[in-house]
Amino acid sequence: MPENPVLERVLFSEQQLAGRVAELGREISADYRGKLPLFVGILRGCILFYSDLMKNISVDCNMDFMCLSSYAGGTASTGQVRTMLDLRESIKGRHVVIVEDIVDTGLTLEYLMGNLKNRGAASIEICCLLDKPCNRKADVHPKYVGFTVENEFVIGYGLDYNELYRNLPYIGVFRK
Ligand code: IMP
Predict the structure, then answer these.
(1) 99, 101, 105, 151: residue to mutate for ligand 1 pocket, most atoms within 8 A of CB
(2) Which of 95, 144, 148, 162 lies deepest, with the highest CB count within 10 Å?
(3) Is 101 annotated as catalytic?
(4) DSSP state of 169
(5) Whose CA is nearest to atom 9 of ligand 1?
(6) Is the backbone peptide bond immediately before 44 cis, with ω within 30 degrees of 0?
(7) Residue 75 lies inside a defined structural domain of this protein
(8) What's the mean pLDDT in 51-77?
(9) What is the CATH number for 25?
């Protein structure tokens, strides 16, 4: 295991991530055969996960991205979200899969689900690498979940602390 002073411990190694992401890709591909899904990556946390997931999608699909910023109240998300980068095209009638790094309170995704529903998507599902259900404040239920985590702050594989550590190829618990 890699030694890294900012980590308390490694939670998921590169090999574990690769294995689980491949499984998710196979599951989603089976569910969306013939549906031309649109994979909407939520920047910036999704980038490593999104890229690895897409290599494991075996059906025709489209790719697009959004960048959202939450207005923080103290350290917690308030659910007020601003769209910094929007989708390029209409999603009317499309089968959308939102690709997110981690669902924590769920407030960001609750906002996004409402927003995308209003644009007339045929279906919307959430695929998240990590789910932290103990912190949930909104009624969101990701259909595709890589791993469930406890109430710990994690970094790496796209996840940051103060915009650092997104480039780590594994996921670990941040040492406070
Ligand atoms: P929420 O579900 O609206 O509370 O916010 C989810 C967002 O908070 C994620 O997309 C991450 O950017 C960030 N986040 C939540 N928990 C963590 C964590 O443990 N590490 C890094 N970012 C996190």
Answers:
(1) 101
(2) 144
(3) no
(4) S
(5) 102
(6) yes
(7) no
(8) 85
(9) 3.40.50.2020
